[in-house]
Specification:
The protein has about 170 residues and is mainly alpha-helical. Among the domains are: about 50 residues, no CATH class; about 50 residues, no CATH class. The strands form two sheets. The protein has a two-stranded antiparallel ribbon. Strands 3-4 form a two-stranded antiparallel ribbon. β3 and β4 form a beta hairpin. The radius of gyration is 20 Å and the shape is globular. The two termini are about 30 Å apart.
Length: about 170
């Protein structure tokens, strides 16, 4: 979707993603496609559809473990690491929900200001990622990059949500 400026209704505003080079795509090997199909479709989806509801205790346990993983990941990213180091926090210090509540918050303005070099995981190359953006409820545009795995995960989450919202009528 393009926008029109109020000064000149014939002048089109170029959207962010239109100015970016698309990532170079590589053909996937049959082995990769097979592994992807097995791991996501057969294992993950079947588990989600067979047991879509967990106990509150299990949800909390999984959330805690996932947050622990995310903290180690975040610590590799300069903007997060700097903020955590200022308060003397290291991911190994995360042992309880009280520790979670002591974490400093990264603001959207900090992420916008640090984009892209200071807020990307160093294991990624920008050219291999897909650019997108989000404004959320603030209305401030946040540019982000996602990898193919994130796209697959997002799609699977959408499928699961659709399945749950239809009461399992769509399979």
């Amino acid at each position: 979707m393009s926008s029109i400026t109020s000064e000149n209704p014939n002048q089109r505003i170029v959207e962010y993603w239109e100015t970016q080079r698309l990532p170079q795509m590589h053909k996937t090997s049959p082995e990769f496609r097979k592994r992807l199909s097995l791991s996501y479709n057969e294992i993950v989806l079947s588990q989600l559809f067979q047991e879509p509801f967990l106990s509150p205790e299990e949800i909390e346990r999984r959330q805690f473990e996932r947050i622990k993983q995310l903290l180690f990941l975040a610590y590799k990213i300069p903007v997060y690491r700097e903020k955590y180091e200022k308060v003397g926090f290291h991911p190994e210090d995360f042992r309880s929900w009280d520790d979670y509540h002591q974490l400093p918050v990264i603001t959207k303005d900090e992420l916008i200001a640090s984009f892209p070099d200071y807020c990307l995981n160093p294991k990624y190359q920008v050219a291999d990622l897909f650019p997108t953006r989000s404004s959320g409820s603030s209305g401030k545009t946040l540019r982000i990059y996602v990898d193919p795995e994130a796209i697959i995960t997002d799609t699977l989450q959408g499928v699961r949500q659709f399945w749950l919202q239809t009461g399992g009528a769509i399979q």
